């Protein structure tokens, strides 16, 4: 069944490559505007740039949002060490991490052939 | 609250009791999914499922514009469910949300239960239910792509209703629920179109090269190669 195995492997590698290209390169084209949920929670507020960063003026749900407990983590906000232009690298790390965690879990959970 | 690539519910939008309630919902849902997922995972599908999770992670980074000043991103429930089944699919999206919250500070840690409930449980269940209902139209390539589009569109809209439910239970009562609902559901109808297009393209691409790996197509009359180990 070597040909089946090779076919499976090349398909899986192609799928992985697609994820790496999307996260590593296409991610630079992503729209940085608030997403649908953020848009809804920001309704009623104006985002104002101040010396202390962005402030919300007005009245909106997002004012209840707490800062993330892990906001200081090395890959926070899809940047490596907070560095400008590192989204692609952060994305590649995320893809590799996700495939290892998910693939590992699914490999452990899988049915073994009963012999 | 600075701009980031993807964004889920932050901590603080729901009160603590409600956040913990949905942590409970998520834990129970994931336990059931993990127990049922075993049946759908074998040497052949487990690696694919890991890659589906990674693909959802990658695609969630790709915010696309839906209105001036508003973006949207894939949730991924229908995509994962069509490719690897609803139980494994729910686990795929959950793993993505956990990685995002704990490693990328995207989506609050106590809000993780609510985010998993909406995107991984409700979204995946809705997407798979729609895809299953429409399965008889998925007999051609075009049919499958259309089914994937519709399932993904509804997955997005129905998942956004999860937020509305949570906000109704434990959100700030100072804000009018009707107004919040209209904004959230309205914008997710538009995001759902993007989700539908991405899901249709992805499912179409996989089905073009490996229809035997598409979960939704299992048991259909299309000619498949002989598979080993399917008699359990």
UniProtKB/TrEMBL annotation, chain A:
One protein family per Pfam: PDGLE
Domain of life: Bacteria
Main location: membrane
Domain (PDGLE): residue spans on this chain: 11-111
Keywords: Cell membrane, Membrane, Transmembrane, Transmembrane helix
Subcellular location: Cell membrane
Membrane-crossing segments per the record: 88-109
InterPro entries linked to this entry: PDGLE_dom
This protein's name: Cobalt/nickel transport protein
Taxonomic source organism: Actinokineospora diospyrosa
From TrEMBL, chain B:
Subcellular location: Cell membrane
Membrane-spanning ranges: 12-34, 46-67, 79-103, 109-130, 142-165, 185-209
Alphabetically ordered keywords of this record: Cell membrane, Membrane, Transmembrane, Transmembrane helix, Transport
Organism whose genome encodes this protein: Actinokineospora diospyrosa
Listed Pfam families: CbiM
Domain of life: Bacteria
Mode of membrane association: Multi-pass membrane protein
Protein name: Cobalt/nickel transport system permease protein
């Amino acid at each position: 069944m070597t040909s089946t195995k090779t076919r499976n492997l090349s398909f899986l590698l192609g799928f992985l490559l697609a994820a790496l290209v999307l996260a590593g390169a296409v991610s630079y084209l992503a729209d940085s505007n608030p997403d649908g949920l953020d848009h809804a929670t920001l309704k009623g507020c104006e985002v104002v740039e101040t010396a202390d960063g962005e402030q919300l003026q007005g009245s909106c749900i997002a004012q209840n949002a707490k800062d993330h407990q892990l906001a200081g983590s090395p890959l926070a906000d899809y940047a490596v060490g907070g560095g400008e232009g590192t989204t692609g690298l952060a994305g590649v790390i995320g893809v590799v991490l996700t495939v290892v965690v998910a693939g590992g879990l699914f490999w452990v959970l899988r049915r073994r052939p009963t012999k | 609250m600075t701009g980031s690539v993807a964004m889920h519910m932050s901590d603080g939008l729901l009160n603590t009791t409600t956040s913990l309630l949905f942590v409970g919902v998520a834990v129970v849902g994931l336990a059931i999914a993990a127990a049922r997922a075993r049946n759908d995972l074998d040497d052949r599908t487990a690696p694919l499922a890991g890659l589906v999770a990674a693909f959802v992670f990658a695609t969630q980074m790709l915010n696309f514009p839906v209105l001036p000043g508003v973006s949207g991103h894939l949730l991924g429930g229908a995509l994962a469910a069509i490719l690897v089944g609803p139980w494994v699919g729910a686990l795929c999206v959950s793993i993505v949300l956990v990685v995002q919250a704990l490693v990328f500070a995207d989506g609050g840690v106590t809000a993780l239960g609510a985010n998993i409930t909406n995107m991984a449980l409700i979204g995946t269940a809705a997407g798979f239910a729609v895809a299953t209902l429409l399965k008889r139209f998925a007999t051609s390539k075009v049919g499958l792509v259309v089914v994937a589009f519709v399932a993904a569109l509804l997955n997005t809209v129905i998942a956004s209703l999860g937020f509305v439910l949570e906000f109704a239970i434990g959100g700030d009562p100072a804000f009018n629920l009707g107004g919040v609902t209209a904004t959230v559901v309205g914008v997710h109808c538009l995001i759902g179109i993007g989700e539908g297009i991405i899901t249709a393209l992805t499912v179409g691409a996989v089905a073009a090269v490996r229809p035997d790996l598409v979960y939704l197509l299992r048991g259909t009359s299309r000619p498949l190669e002989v598979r080993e180990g399917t008699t359990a």
